[in-house]
What we know:
Elements lengths: L1 H19 L15 H13 L4 H12 L6 E5 L2 E4 L20 E3 L5 E3 L3 H4 L37 H13 L10 H15 L7 H17 L6 H8 L4 E3 L6 E3 L18 H11 L10 H10 L10 E2 L1 E4 L2 E6 L2 H6 L15 E3 L16 H11 L1 H15 L5 H20 L5 H21 L1 H23 L3 E4 L9 E6 L5 E12 L5 E4 L3 E2 H4 L12 E7 L2 E5 L7 H14 L8 H24 L9 H9 L2 H13 L2 H8 L1 H7 L5 H16 L6 E9 L2 E8 L7 E6 L10 E6 L8 E4 L8
Parallel strand pairs: 13-18, 14-22
Antiparallel strand pairs: 1-2, 3-4, 5-6, 7-10, 8-9, 10-11, 11-12, 12-13, 15-21, 16-17, 18-19, 20-21
Helix pairs in contact: 1-2, 2-3, 5-6, 7-8, 10-13, 10-16, 12-14, 12-16, 13-14, 14-15, 15-16, 18-19, 18-24, 19-20, 19-21, 22-23
Amino acid sequence: MISKEINHIYWRWQEAIRERFENDGDQLTVARPSNDGHLSILKEMMLKKGFTTEEANSIVLILEKDKDDDYTSIGFNSYALKKDLPNNWKKGDDIPDGVQRFTKDDSGNYKPVGSDDEKKDDGAGEKKPETNPNFDQTNIDGDHLTSKGSKEKKKSKLEQNADKTREALGIEKSEDVTNPQKQKDIDSLLQQVGKNIDKLSDEEKKSVAEFFESLNTLYSDKATDEEKEEAWRNINVSASPNRQKLYLDDLRGESGLYKILGEGKSAIRSRLVDEVSKYKDIPEDDNKNYIKAESLAKPDIGGGKPARSALKKKKGKYVDEVADPNVDKIMSIPPLDRITRAAFKTLFGPVGPDGNLLIPSSDNSRAYFEHSINNNTSLQETSNFLKELAEEGKAPKELSESLDAHQQRLQDIAKNYEIPSEEARKAVEESYALLAEELHDASPEYAGRLLKQFAEMEQYDSEIAGGDECYLPGHGSFPAGDKLLIEKGAAGGKVVSFISIKYGKSGSKKRTVYGCPANMSALQQLHPDETKRESLGQYVGQTGYTLAVKDDLIDTPQKAEETITDLLQESGLGDLFSEDEVKELASITHSTKQRTEELREEATGPDGKVDWKKFNELRKNDETLIRNSRKLREICNEEKLTKMIGKRNAEALSKKLSPEVFISSAVFVNQVQTSDGYNFLKHNKQYIEGGEIKNDTIDGSTDMDGWFINPRMNRTPGRNGGGIQSSYVGPEARDEIDSVSSNSDNII
Length: 748
């Protein structure tokens, strides 16, 4: 435990140093007790955490006393770090080239020879270059210096390493990238690649070269949006789960070096993901271990048994006969009574002597809490899987250890606390907060995936422990809500609130919202207007939903025009496009539907099954679809798209807007506007701040600036797409929150 705490403190120290010195590159930041600047930062951290000045100084002195052990004398007032010298080096031996030399001042501080401090007086007697009397602030290229024979600026080590990699890849430095930060980012990525370039095959080097040529176009001042889109069309990349790293998927085979751009935290790679995402949908890294861990973590408190069902099953099919009258009673409360699919009419919970679900949960809090912690198979199965990975060296052992410790804490709460009580609620929240911090410290990649699932259980367990009436739906794809909260309405009747929960981690400036809580094709089933409950589909190419909207809506150009007109007028957007523009949008949408049907037929094998990988490749490079998308973006530019789906969504989608995303978004916006923002759905965003669970729960709204849209239109061999997915955070928070897309809702 002590070692774990020390590691955590050291990690915080490193991050503080990295932030102070703005170290955004790939170089490892090491906190050194021998560095006065690093010690100063540590002292500041201690004082902020409540240490007295005397305590902080004592700790710093302890660290400083070992400073001399890191250095050895190599001559009169000349020193070197022991680690930089050969193991068998002794005083009097030659000093290897490149070894940094240090001097020692009267205070015992070591200063590198050639540092800024030593150079302050180096040029005291040196004649300064004369300046051109006509110099003004526009002459920033150096031509105003009149000294003759000045040498060309020496290239930095970074630039030299980048040039070596360019030479190995057979590419030239682009003259069209004039932004210094973007050029430095390119050079840093080239330097990183250079570390492993000898391990790549000729074919892999060719792929990496194409990546950097596309990167030059992306960061070029002269390239148009169309040129940038085209440059990245066939570059196969994916992103890490936290969307901070970019992977080269063509390198997953022979060398396995698909992470060649680097794995550490880096603003360079984060900026790269953001820029590429403007022109190309970047799938999440399809790491099977991540996906399996996330799938196992999905809440299941049935203890291996199915949830309680309102309706009976006979011969594997639901029939119109009541199985559990208490579940049926809950599912009859509006708006739950809008649900028609029998599989969704199921709830987890303990049963009474009559064999039916105990209700209300608020009168049976202890039974519900013990049922939850004793039957939560997902926690134990996830822990077991992570243990296996740890034994194989594929995951930190601290992940499973944290899960096991959390389970034990919940058992202790059941034994030692009065339930229901506010003390029990707080204890549950604290246990989940500690779990979240420990998982993030062990592995941010796994933490983001696991905590999206555990967030539901934190809400459920804490509210049950506190005496609230709430229920956990028994079906993993239950429309919109992760948890049902039953409250008393103004007239004394019961009101159901669907609580949609997602987890994020608090940062210094922004919170990150992981995933999208609502698959809109599922949520639409609860729309108050029955005619709008089947409008959205799951993916492009779906039978009956070719463009992920119902085919009947766009079957002909005339029908598509009528649909678009009605959708916009009902949404208060009737004046957004002219009649001619609506007609053209309808023509483009219908044309895209027809061409997509032809490509689906081409990708269908003799067995009648669609090869979805082939289908997506055909769509990606089809001239008709590319042309239609570009024509559509000319009509629906970013300004108009902003009025339709909100500013943040338009910024993310405008440069890659396609007919299927346009028509699906038009349907989604219409559903939001005509349902009063799905006002029965409450949106909970959960995050950790100062070691405590923070919960923000807000109602939905018709203000599209408060909704984040994540179109997931492609079906792949492992995923059913998802169609339009959305998370509501509220307009006030839209500038504080980064929406990070995830595949969590569609694991098969």
